[in-house]
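[recover] target loaded
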């Protein structure tokens, strides 16, 4: 008999407690929240602007060969420091050296032929002078009747032959000989260029980051085989919102902190501000150049900071709450807290700049912000 009574009594007490809690909860829900307020004012804010990003090389060069051939030696490996002009790869030159020797022999032959043509031209000149003198003497005798017409015709023919021989030796023959020399020299220059192209040199000071070929392998032209990065200057790549653009300019100095070296400070200068927003929205690309003494490497995360002063609508930092991916404040209208989504600019430990959502002169809750809800009744202390 006592078991059913006890069970009924337990149920009754449970229901009673639930109603009591609900009643108390309702009374607490309707109870005004005491808050302290502050007036949004148009004033100056001194703060530190911080930008975060990653250090990247100022320049990366992918190197390919202009010639095809087998690799006979490698000057450096991945991670090696190189100087401009250092030999990175040497290709086999045996075949090209043989062709060069043959071309040089061809040049010697062409020069010898040209010398023979010049000698022939000199001899033709002598023969022409002799034929001209004979013609002149015979002509005088012919005019005086001392020689016959056939004799005169004979010396005239000899003069014409000598003239033709000289013109050929001093004109087309010499041009042909000179052309042969020019062709031989062009072949030599072409082979020398090909041989030069078998030696692949670094175009800059930097560090080898990629090497995709080994000794004994053959490579083809225009295929990247080595990559070198110039780390003498590094760039911190980041983005800034359009609201911060007026605060920054190319050349402005910023203090750099490297996450891996928190106790060290570096100096950098803004080298570029993108004129067009990136695809993600109202942010612009920005690069800060940092002279590298050798202790920094690409890929490190870093932060750039700048002390600055801005003017605008300011509220206490404690008035701004976060939730649902948004920033908001509670504007106090008489005795009601109205939730207002805002866009926050710069801030420091005490004050936050409101770019959108609050006007100067409006009152915002500063205390018990986490306990407020939209249209919550409040009492102002």
């Amino acid at each position: 008999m006592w078991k059913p009574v006890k069970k009924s009594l337990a149920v009754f007490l449970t229901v009673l407690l639930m109603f009591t809690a609900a009643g108390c909860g309702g009374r607490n829900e309707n109870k005004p929240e005491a808050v302290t307020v502050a007036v949004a004012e148009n004033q100056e804010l001194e703060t530190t602007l911080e930008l975060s990003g990653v250090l990247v090389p100022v320049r990366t060069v992918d190197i390919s060969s202009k010639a095809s051939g087998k690799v006979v030696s490698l000057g450096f490996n991945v991670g090696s420091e190189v100087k401009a002009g250092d030999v990175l790869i040497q290709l086999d030159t045996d075949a090209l050296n043989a062709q060069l020797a043959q071309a040089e022999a061809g040049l010697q032959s062409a020069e010898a032929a040209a010398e023979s043509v010049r000698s022939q031209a000199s001899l033709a000149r002598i023969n022409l002078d002799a034929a001209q003198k004979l013609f002149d003497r015979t002509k005088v005798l012919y005019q005086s009747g001392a020689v016959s017409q056939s004799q005169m015709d004979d010396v005239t023919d000899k003069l014409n032959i000598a003239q033709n021989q000289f013109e050929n030796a001093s004109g087309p023959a010499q041009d042909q000989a000179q052309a042969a020399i020019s062709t031989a020299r062009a072949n030599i220059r072409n082979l020398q260029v090909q041989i030069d192209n078998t030696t692949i040199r670094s175009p800059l000071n930097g560090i080898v980051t990629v090497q995709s070929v080994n000794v004994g392998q053959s490579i083809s032209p225009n295929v990247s085989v080595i990559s070198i990065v110039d780390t003498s200057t590094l760039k911190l790549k980041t983005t800034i919102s359009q609201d911060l653009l007026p605060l920054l300019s190319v050349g402005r100095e910023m203090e750099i902190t490297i996450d891996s070296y928190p106790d060290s400070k570096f100096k950098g200068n803004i080298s570029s501000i993108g004129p067009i927003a990136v695809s993600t929205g109202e942010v612009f690309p920005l690069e800060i150049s940092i002279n590298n003494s050798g202790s920094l490497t690409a890929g490190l995360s870093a932060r750039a900071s700048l002390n600055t002063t801005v003017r605008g609508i300011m509220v206490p930092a404690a008035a701004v709450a976060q939730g649902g991916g948004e920033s908001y404040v509670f504007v106090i209208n008489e005795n009601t807290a109205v939730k207002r989504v805002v866009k926050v600019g710069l801030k420091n430990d005490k004050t936050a700049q409101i770019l959108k959502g609050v006007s100067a002169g409006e009152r915002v809750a500063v205390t018990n912000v986490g306990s407020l809800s939209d249209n919550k009744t409040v009492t102002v202390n």
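[recover] notes: The chain has a mean pLDDT of 88.
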